[in-house]
Amino acid sequence: MVRTPSFCENRSTVAKTAFDDLDLQIIDGLAEDGRRAFTDVARDLGVAEATVRARVARLQRIGAIKFVTDTSPHQLGLLFAYLGVKIVGTDTRRAIDAICKIPEAVYVIECTGSYDVLVEVVARDGDDMLRLIHEEIRGIRGVGNVDSFMGLRIAKGTFRYADMGRTIDRREPHEFSR
User: Which residue has the higher pLDDT, 31 or 87?
Assistant: First the structure.
């Protein structure tokens, strides 16, 4: 599985990098199984294995992709929830950095809309989830309202981003922000 790096890992770097259709096809070819042999990806795409290897190395070097183990919280006996967090005051960056330091906060996204931050959290059980929300998250200076959305079942989980360019003219390299 290929996953784009999280907000906390890339928050200080907002750069534009050109990606072409082959980059996106390689990412898609590795999306479901990041351990798939580069020779298989190259064969499917009709390019040399060295091309796939070099492209993947470049995508890793610039932080566009990384290889991780995707886990299913429910299969591991864990609870997961999404928290909509509203930050009050002017020190948003400090509050987000504090959220990023919480080990149970596995995905932190600065966003637009009703919340300033969306946080995916995992917990051992209901008591642990309450502790996490009330003591850890709400205990951070600047955190105002916290809404929780308990995950009951993952209806779809994919890391296939290559189709995101369907409306983009594929003849030209694309500029994507990281």
Answer: 87
